[in-house]
Amino acid sequence: MAEAHQAVGFRPSLTSDGAEVELSAPVLQEIYLSGLRSWKRHLSRFWNDFLTGVFPASPLSWLFLFSAIQLAWFLQLDPSLGLMEKIKELLPDWGGQHHRLRGVLAAALFASCLWGALIFTLHVALRLLLSYHGWLLEPHGAMSSPTKTWLALVRIFSGRKTMLFSYQRSLPRQPVPSVQDTVRKYLESVRPILSDEDFDWTSVLAQEFLRLQASLLQWYLQLKSWWASNYVSDWWEEFVYLRSRHSLMVNSNYYMMDFLYVTPTPVQAARAGNAVHALLLYRHRLNRQEILPTLLMGMRPLCSAQYEKIFNTTRIPGIQKDHIRHLRDSRHVAVFHRGRFFRVGTHSQSGLLSPRALEQQFQRILDDPSPACPQEEHLAALTAAPRDVWAQVRSSLKVQAEDALEAVEGAAFFVSLDSEPAGLTREDPAASLDAYARALLAGRGHDRWFDKSFTLIVFSNGKLGLSVEHSWADCPISGHMWEFTLATECFQLGYSADGHCKGHPDPSLPQPQRLYWHLPEKIHLSISLALRGAKTLSGNIDCHVFPFSHFGKSFIKRCHLSSDSFVQMALQLAHFREPQRRALFRLAVEKHQSLLKAAMSGQGVDRHLFALYIVSQFLHLRSPFLDQVHSEQWQLATSQIPVQQIHLFDVHNYPDYVSSGGGFGPADDHGYGVSYIFMGDDTITFHISSKKSSTKTDSHRLGQHIEDALLDVASLFQEGQRLKPRCGGLQEEDLGHRCGSLPCHTRGSRAPTKSTNF
């Protein structure tokens, strides 16, 4: 998201100038280390790799094969065609009484070899099948006979019971696109926004790059693609995220919102109890690989590696480079309330604490009258400071307050019990949504631990939200977790009639542990400076959230257009404010779909150009073309928040109980960050951010342009379809039907037990 342009400033420290062979040594070393890291990741999850290594078979299948061989041997049949006899001859002779044992060992060895050969064949076949991308090129809604055959074979070779990491060893390597194709696509993409003179100059630089440097840089990427499973992902994580020295707040984190129109309970501690319990249930399913792997367009499995770092993960600051610290397990969460830090255990000897027990612990924190210690209240502002500054202070903090720091960094995740309400209000719906987004993205600058993989934020009126650090995973991963959390805490766990978690408190539980920080004087100034910088950064962010309810994806589908491409083209129209005609709009949508499918099949432009740039920096090989590519400013950064588990929600009977998505900061000081989510069939919620210090941007103005653009484009395809009239933003009449409590249960639905107004 916003931090991606930090790759522009990357300048590695390599060896001194010398011959080309000497200069190429560091990049070869880096390629070697990339592959080594890839193999270490495999070794670190041995059991998962064992299960995925035998997929689509199972360990029990070996026992079945061994038993079948033994049965055949008992019936005086030799399925090995004499191989087992040769294996017996190679085994040591332990005497006549052990003759039968030699036969069993020979059968076991033969069964193992045969089993391994079958698994290897299945792996190769599945990897070859998953390398096929022809289905992406077919028109939406149509499926050719070859694709139907391909899909049937994938399902056959995938087995019947897939787990989260089942496909990991069968996924093909990330292909390195042709450098000629990448340059051609890049020039094609910048042509509409460059003047004739600028485009001619860029084309000259591109041709010079292809002639002089491209082949050498491409050779290194090809080499890395054979050694590591992905030629770009580890460099993207390191040079785009971990080497960035800017504040994580706004620049790297993003947020996820609660239900937009309803809050299941106004009791803050109860909402926290159910949400924390639901999150830990998700972690339990994650550890047992009970989460199904994500399928691209319902057909092709995607890599599941990013799921591993959702919980028990912290981004540790460094002077030049951060690193990700991930623990195998954690039995507590760190909680922040009114400037104080607490450690709350999440498990007892009998297992995970019940929601009611967790509510009790959170209520004890809310009722605790003890004040914050000097500077403790603003301590977390250090995590919003520039990374090198925070790294230096943390080294002192680790000596002075090691136990408290470890309790926070070693927690499953961070919980912030906010003292203020948030969410949509009837009095001022537009402003309240904007304030809600700003509170989730930045807070007050000192009430989020931005280093943690995510912070669960529970406001005083029971509203929820997430603040997510971006380096460990992309939004679909945290979005998947968030969908499960909202559905589970609301529909499955539920609340009693008085708004509390179901069940009974546990008076035997010890009090939450208050964390004490021994902060020397030299840290006080650093905290004050960090707080000042965080407030300046948070005060400069302009957030605007609005649900567009004139039409949604059902109308777009009736236009026979991709819903994502439809919105993307409307965003371009809103940003540049050009008039479009129907034919040109449809052509633009088709072009966007073509580029999207190319990116999904590994033939995108950005990552390839980025990797070429990294190699050129390692080699001290200056390319004016690559320098220009990576000096561009991203004035409009967009992202769709996917709804991945629609089966968890009853959108027809309870359309308000759907996640309202989330947002992120702008990628440029004079640009916009725009995300959107399709809520059901008839609403699209937009999240817009920009910086108040810019005279070129205004989030509310862009929101109005987006609404106008969507309606203007829809009018081209309306053809008798009825749309809601223009109403100039979120209106109170749109909220009228959402004000009452919902029934406890209706046939065929999973309604929450209680609902409050907003």
From TrEMBL:
This is Carnitine palmitoyltransferase 1C. InterPro entries: Carn_acyl_trans (IPR000542), CAT-like_dom_sf (IPR023213), Cho/carn_acyl_trans (IPR039551), Cho/carn_acyl_trans_2 (IPR042231), CPT_N (IPR032476). It is found in: Membrane. The chain crosses the membrane at residues 50-75, 104-126. One of its GO terms (molecular function) is acyltransferase activity. Belongs to the carnitine/choline acetyltransferase family. One of its GO terms (biological process) is fatty acid beta-oxidation. PROSITE patterns: ACYLTRANSF_C_1, ACYLTRANSF_C_2. Residues 175-577, 580-707 form the Choline/carnitine acyltransferase domain.
